[in-house]
Amino acid sequence: MVVDDHPMWRDAVARDLAEAGLDVVATAGDGEQAVRRAQAAVPDVLVLDLNLPLKPGVQVCKEVVAANPALRVLVLSASGEHADVLEAVKSGATGYLLKSASTEELIDAVRRTAEGDAVFTPGLAGLVLGEYRRLAGEPAAGTPDDPKAPQLTDRETEVLRLVAKGLSYKQIAERLVISHRTVQNHVQNTLGKLQLHNRVELVRYAIERGIDRADDA
C-alpha cells in the first residue's frame, strides 16, 4: 500500500511497484484515509510519506502497527533529518528511504521490507542503531527481568544477536549457512516467545540484555 499526499508521486510509486510484479492493494492521500484503508486492505508493507494532511505519518505508523503488528512500514520521505528518522523508528517503522532513491532502490527496499529486513538509506542505519542503544538505556515497560521469561534456543539467540548488530536477514543466512526462510522463522518464533511486535522492540530487548555483545572480546 502506498501513502502520499501528492497524487502524481503516489501514482508513480504505485505504478513502478506494480510493474515490478508487486501487488499494490491500495493507495491513500491523507493520514486518516491511510489508517482506514490499511485496516481494510491489510497490506504486508506500507510505503508511507511522513508529511500528510489530517494526520501525520508518524501517527499513522503508530496506529496501523498497533492494529496489525505484522505490518511492516517503509517510510519514503524527502526529509533526511535525524529527528524525523528517529521519530519514525520509534513509531514502529522498520525502514526509512529518501525520495532521492532510484526506482530500483525503492523496489529492492520494498521487497526486503516484505521479507523482514530493516532497510535504511545509506548513512542512516548507524544513526538508527545508535537510537536502539539509547532506548535500551531507558526503562522498558513490560520487559522486567523475570526468571520465568521464555527461553530461547541457542540458534534463536544467535540470530537475535546478529539482528541486533544490524545485519540483514540475507547476511545472517550467509553468516550462519542457513536459508533466508529459516532466519525469518527464527525471528518470528523469537517475537512470539518474547511477546514483542517488531524489529525495533526485538533489537531493544537484545541490547538491554547485552546479547548483541555476546561474542565481542
Care to describe what's here?
The protein is an alpha/beta fold. The chain has two domains: 2-122, Rossmann fold; 142-213, Winged helix-like DNA-binding domain superfamily/Winged helix DNA-binding domain (Arc Repressor Mutant, subunit A, Orthogonal Bundle), CATH 1.10.10.10. The chain is built from ten helices and six strands. Strands 2-1-3-4-5-6 form a six-stranded parallel sheet, sandwiched between helices.
CATH class of the largest domain: Alpha Beta
Number of strands: 6
| Order of adjacent strands in the largest pleated sheet | 2-1-3-4-5-6
Overall pLDDT confidence: 84
Report the span from N to C terminus.
44 Å
Number of domains: 2
Spell out the blueprint of helices and strands.
Elements: E1 2-3, H1 7-19, E2 27-28, H2 31-41, E3 45-48, H3 57-67, E4 72-77, H4 82-90, E5 95-98, H5 103-115, E6 119-120, H6 125-136, H7 154-164, H8 169-176, H9 180-194, H10 199-208
Parallel strand pairs: 1-2, 1-3, 3-4, 4-5, 5-6
Helix pairs in contact: 2-3, 6-10, 7-9, 7-10, 8-9
